[in-house]
Write a structure and sequence with these properties.
By secondary structure, this protein is an all-beta fold. 0% of the residues lie in helices and 49% in strands.
C-alpha cells in the first residue's frame, strides 16, 4: 500500500502561482499529477519516473507547470506558474507500483491516488 496526501491548493488570480505537495509513504516506479474539473474527465498533467528522473507534461501545461521530487522528504511537488482560469480543478497525486505503462499520463497507469486538493484560478 502507498499513502498519498496532497496539500497546497487554494485560490489565486490569473497569472499567479501555487505549489502543490504530495507526501508519500514509500517509493514507487512513477508518480504523477492529475486534475479533474467538474463535468470533465480526469486529465494527466505531469509525471515523473522515480528511478530515471525523466519527466512528462500534458500539452496544455508545458512551460507553466514543473513536477519535481524530494526523495529525502518523500514529497512530490507541482510548481504551477502563469495560472489560467482553465487550470481550475481538483488536483490529484498518483503513484504506480508497476513498471510498464502504455501512457505515462494515462489514468490507468497509476494504481494509488490521493484525496485531491482544490485549485481555483479567477480571472
Amino acid at each position: 500500500q502507498v499513502q498519498l496526501v496532497e496539500s497546497g491548493g487554494g485560490s489565486v488570480q490569473a497569472g499567479g502561482s501555487l505549489r502543490l505537495s504530495c507526501a508519500f509513504s514509500r517509493r514507487t516506479y512513477r508518480m504523477g499529477w492529475f486534475r479533474q474539473a467538474p463535468g470533465k474527465e480526469r486529465e494527466g498533467v505531469a509525471a515523473i519516473y522515480i528511478g530515471a528522473g525523466s519527466t512528462y507534461y500534458g500539452d496544455s501545461v508545458k512551460g507553466r507547470l514543473t513536477i519535481s521530487l524530494d526523495n529525502a522528504k518523500n514529497t512530490l511537488y507541482l510548481q504551477m506558474n502563469s495560472l489560467k482560469p482553465e487550470d481550475t480543478a481538483m488536483y490529484y497525486c498518483a503513484a504506480a507500483s508497476f513498471g510498464t505503462a502504455l501512457q505515462t499520463l494515462g489514468v490507468t497507469s497509476y494504481n494509488y491516488w490521493g484525496q485531491g486538493t482544490q485549485v481555483t484560478v479567477s480571472s
